[in-house]
Amino acid sequence: MADRYSKFVDYFVICGLNPSCNLEPDELAGDNFDRSPMERSFKSRVLAHFPDSVPWNPFDRDAISMMCLPHGMRFITQKQKADPYFHAFLITREDGSRYYGFSFTFFEEVIEADICNDLYALQGIYLAEMSQGRSGMKAAALDGAHNSRSLPRHFRLSVHQDELSGSGKYYYDREKDTLFAPKSIALICQTPFARAAREFLVALQKSVMKDLNDHLCIEKLIFPILHEVSIPHPGQSLTWKLPESLPALRLHYPDPACELPLLDFPIREVIELLGTENFLQLFTCLLLENQVLLYSKELYRLMLVAECATAVLFPFMWQHVYVPIVPASLLHFLDAPVPFLMGLHGTHKSQQQAFGECNLCVVYVDKGRVDLPEEIPSFPHQKQLIHEINSILSQYGIQGSLDKNLNERSPAHGRHRRRKPSWNRDAVLQNSDTLQRVQALAAKSGVKTGLEHLCLSDWDPDGSYVKDLKINSAIREVFFNQFIHMFSPYEHFVIQPNQDLDSWLSNRESVQNFDKATFLSDQPLQHFPFMSRFLETQMFTSLIDSKILKSYDQQDDLNVALFDARIRALRDTQEDGLTHRTSYENCTTVEETEELLMRRIQSSEEILCLAAPPLEECKSFQGPCTFFPLPDPEVLSRGAFSITIRKEKGVKRKEEGSGEGVKRREKRRAPPPDSSRPRSMSIKDMSPAVLAQNNWKFVEQLLKECKSRTKRLLVEKLGMEAVELGHGADQSLIGMEENTLIAGLCDLVERIWSHGRQNKQGKSALWSHLLSFQELADPIQGVDPTYLTPALAWVLLRRRLDQLTAEAGDYSGETGTWGRGNTGRSPSAPPTPRSTSRAEGRISFDRRSRGQSPEPSVLRKLPISVTFDMRNVQSMEEIKTPIGYARAWIRLALEKKLLSRHFRELLSNQDLLRGSYKRYAFLRCDDEREQFLYHLLTLNAVDFFCFTNTFHNTVIPYQVIIIPTRKMSASTTTANVWVRIAGTLGETKPIQVPRGSNQMFFQHKNLGILSTLSIGHDDSGMSPNWMVEHVIVRNEVTGHTYKFPCGRWLGRNVDDGSIERLLVGELMPLAANDANIVESCRGPPSRPRSPSVSRRSTVGQLQNMLSDAVNSLVKHFHKAEKERGNLTILLCGDGGLVPSLEQVLGFGFKSSRFFSRNLYLWDYLVRVQAFYITNVKQNKAEGKRPTNPEHYRIIKSFCLLVDRIGKASSTLGKDDRFQLFIVLSVRDHLLSCFLDPLAEAPPTSQMFEEYCFLRDPELREFLQKLLNTLHEFNMVVEGSLTKGIASPSYNCTVMRPPPSPRRKP
């Protein structure tokens, strides 16, 4: 293992054309026989590699050959540009470990006559086929020399056309043209020292192919880098002086204990290409584990952007598929339904269009453009972070977004741009053959010439490399600093397991290791969208797992160790380690890390490489060579000969493989134990069988993720409902986290529908499938009329007429259609004012007298179909994108508990499924598809409001049914009836109910979960009195039905004289039959609504009932604000505080009277008010002042409150006014203060029995203490309950009694 982590280079590789083999088409390039042979890819081969093998890195011939020449063998002629280029690549093994490669590609003349003849023969076959019309290629793309006799007559192009099209360069004339083939020399390494590898390969090719040398020994040039050059220990730097004209190699290795990991790719160039804002958007997409595709015509840029983007993720690591360079022939890899970071090298516009329609992050590196997927939140403090990065760049003189081509070609003009040669002394001496010979002779004799130092500065003559290292360090420190401040208290939220390591590892996926709910509750509101999604990513989970493994004394993760060390340093400057600053904090460690970097570079140990094979065994060439020769494998495979390393300065170096440094390197690179990183795709074998196997793995992974997501969502949702039911379960789910989990489920569904799709159609594969299904199921709705031809229009119209004819008659709830009696109108659409009573008898707007008995109200069943919910989603104006429609449809189906059923209906069309998806797609795997639908079916066990609570601005149709009493004398009214509905998201204005009907539709902006309904009338007509049993309201989109019990009269001369009732709603189960709901509401409510009606309850029962109501409120306010339920239900619903107080205060009330109307509790409050007003006036007349000012202010507040309620609304009855009194006094914490003045008033003894709560001192004290426990909570009550009465209008109290010790819920 010491050799593995100490050697700089594992292999030296040469790839290219093997003259001894015939031309073979590149299988990975696909079927490209419709192209000219000069545009086809032929199979490249590894010509040689040294050494033969190393134990820790077995040589993968196919993968390395493919990555060295990603396009295979593509021949060119002298008419095409043949500039050499450098690129880096990465190969991931099956176990997740990685190794790096660095390739320098140049072109050599093909002198083998057989190769030239074969290529020319292929071109003749291609042209013959084209002349016979068997190819679909356009004539403009044909490669024809304008005067060549080899071309058919109709393929000859004029000189002008050929120059304009540029197609002549792809025609090979054997007599006139010179043929060239690419060749690659590459280094395979464990550590990505990109700069050193590039300088070595460029200099090596120049020395062999361009420099004049009488005795060129290629083995001597390659031998030191294979057997002598090694990487430094952590925190050290080495400068290796290579023989001949090769440059010095400067290798530096950061100390993992205090510095960020090695990055030898310049971030500066990435920002110059993309710009700071686009780079930050790419960074955000990687953090949220989106699918990211890099696109560039330069191979080097793909690896550059990928490595720099993943480097700034530290301390987090990319855990998913990572293939920085994917050849254009493997474009189908984009169908992988998992997060990935891939780089695509290509020039065809068809490829750009294909992935441009996918819902992924596409980075056009050459254009400096980033196309983001839908619904990507912003990174916290994004603007401040961009400003800090730009300020760092400006310190080094970098401004704007420059387009720097690392292969030294100007993309704007396409011309070769050569660097201006450097004529300084070091450059001249370095290229001097005489100086090198003198140094070699002196080395053999052991004499120091003193000339060695002359070439020590050639590794960075202009200081650009050190400058890039400084910029890398500063920018990475800025990103690292943001993570430190964002997650500084994260250790306090890690849930340490209470089981052994093996048990924890086996149950790791089902165990919650981080308290996300509490952590998110401390985040600023503007950071919630990003933070809630990031906590669900695999990279964050892996960091928490590494933190927990450390508690088991397992191998310490150096990333986590450095992260924790920086957090501890930050805490030393803060008073409280549990709090983190919400404002932006600039990085303060840039100068410190730059000082460490410069200290390491300046103290670099310089080593002169003198090791070389015996000269008599080397092959000498006369340079320059016309081709790159193959070294002697026996010479390079013998290992190191007697080596004497001369150290020019610095301390003596430790032996390789010993010391703590090697252990640190090994720990940095070795994969963590039981790593959760998924295995990456192997691209060395792309046979159909291997591709099918990889896709089966994707299917299994998708199914596993589906099971995990549905299980977590189900368990945590059940936990929250258990808390609300008082079962004492721990609640770990809040509204924002639930929304995040559902968003993750939407992403999973989208990835499932994207897997194995035949053609990319729009950004949402699911919505494209739904539209195709809608077109088949409902042709008129599914087809855009602008695209209808006359023939297609007639076919669709004929099918629609046949469908309507077959479905004529009664309305069918299963199909969602109406018969003749309803003119085809959907029940979700409100009737038009002009509709006649014949067409819309149930919801007519005619002016029939209410004295006539209306037809029985019917709540018809909503259609249960995919297309019905699609039409509801398509009518939402706030959604603009296919992704938005798909997610809204999923949320709607999930809230209606129809998601699994809808998907089963959608997938039942086998013809559509086979035409849209390939055989290996997830949706065509029968067993896995059934398991997927089963997992979704389990979500029906809980209630979701993910559609209602998300789309606040959507206009929703509602249906209202008023159910009066069955008694004929009270079932109708001549008055004009109105309703007003309130919910969690808003409240309507009074809506007039059509005359002659107890059923109506209306549309309004989403009201949320309905809570209250006010119903009343204007008391007009001959018979206005009306007995209402229930009111039913249904959301026509979600299907949620609310029942509002009433059981009271509306009339001035009946009951308590109220012509307006405030009703509290009850949500009915979705499984309930709509017809049964209406039938069950035709009778009176289960309990009488008037608090003045005497009840046979004992004191103990009333105390328990009131205690439960208070405990429910205490639990409500002890939750986080976003976790709380509906306060209106807890106050005014069944078993709420207000009904409980009504019964408690009405206990012992003498309501019944002979020969007169019954008394109500509001009559009692009015009499108490009159008594105190009279008493105050009498005291003022007598000149008496109140002896207890506080008592006087309480009485004054009571009198003002009763007066405000009496004047608030003339339509309220006595019971509703008493309820309003309870609501307001509880809201303002005055009810407990009012009890003593009420008990002291003479009307109390006159109107209550002695055993009542007001007259019994012990019961009154119990009531006061219980109500005092609510004084610490700020109650925000709906406006529908308060009638607009504010506290300052009547509250005159200054001091309040101190709250008594709070009872435990």
From TrEMBL:
Lineage: superkingdom: Eukaryota
UniProt-recorded Gene Ontology molecular function terms: guanyl-nucleotide exchange factor activity; small GTPase binding
Domain UDENN, residue spans: 26-555
Protein name listed in UniProt: DENN domain-containing protein 5B
GO cellular component terms given for this protein: membrane
Cross-referenced InterPro entries: cDENN_dom, dDENN_dom, DEN5A/B, DENN_C, PLAT/LH2_dom, PLAT/LH2_dom_sf, PLAT_RAB6IP1, Run_dom
Limits of the PLAT domain: 956-1064
Biased amino acid composition, Basic and acidic residues: 649-663, 837-849
Disordered: region residues: 405-426, 649-685, 811-857
Principal cellular location given in the protein's record: membrane
Pfam families: dDENN (PF03455), DENN (PF02141), PLAT (PF01477), RUN (PF02759), uDENN (PF03456)
Subcellular location: Membrane
Keywords, in A-Z order: Membrane, Repeat
Extent of Basic residues compositional bias: 412-422
Entry's family note: Belongs to the RAB6IP1 family.
Domain RUN: 736-952, 1128-1282
Organism: Darwinula stevensoni
